[in-house]
Amino acid sequence: MNTEPYPPGSSLGEQPNAFADARHSIRGTVSDPVTKLLLDSSHLTLPQLETLLADSVSNEKAIKKDQRRLFRPSEKRISRGSYNRSLIQAQNNVIRSIYTILLLGYVGLFDTSALQPFIELSDTLQSYIEEKQPSSPGDLEAIQDLKRRLSEVISALADRQSFKDLL
């Protein structure tokens, strides 16, 4: 089996810089400490996240579907079937997570006010991303603070009395 990242003579091989840039960008995203922190507690695996990112980037670049798998930053080339299975699993996990939130809201376990801490935390994450300086000494401390805040908000949601009463 060929372990090259893309087949010789492919249209992506003719655009090595765009291809390499996309793979580098995806690698950077998945190696980001906040991404790792969130991924650890999500319903996605690392390969599924890489596949979602690769699909998104390649879709933006209008790459043919049969070549989208080549954007995944794995060292070895994966088959089209493996890529498609990973993509479907990732999409299903995202959809199921959204349905879970909708279900909890519908049955009264998760009201709009319960979402406010998550919106604030999302804003905090966005601020972190905008202010982040690569390799700055405060990164580790900021990540630990973010991890603590995530844990507190999620624990507070799970400890809500109304949440327990309805179960």
Detailed description of the structure:
The structure is a single chain. α1 runs antiparallel to α3 (46-60), α3 packs across α4 and α5 (112-131) runs antiparallel to α6. This protein has helices at 16-31, 33-40, 46-60, 80-106, 112-131, 139-159, 161-166. The termini are far apart. It is 68% helix and 0% strand. 14% of the residues are buried.
Q: Between the first and last Cα atoms, what is the distance in angstroms?
A: 52 Å
Radius of gyration, in Å, reads 19 Å
**Total number of helices:** 7
Count of domains: 2
Sum this structure up briefly.
Helices cover 68% and strands 0% of the residues. By secondary structure, it is an all-alpha fold.
Highlighted features:
167 residues, disordered N terminus
Task: Give the helices and strands, then pairings.
Blueprint lengths: L15 H16 L1 H8 L5 H15 L19 H27 L5 H20 L7 H21 L1 H6 L1
Helix pairs in contact: 1-3, 3-4, 5-6
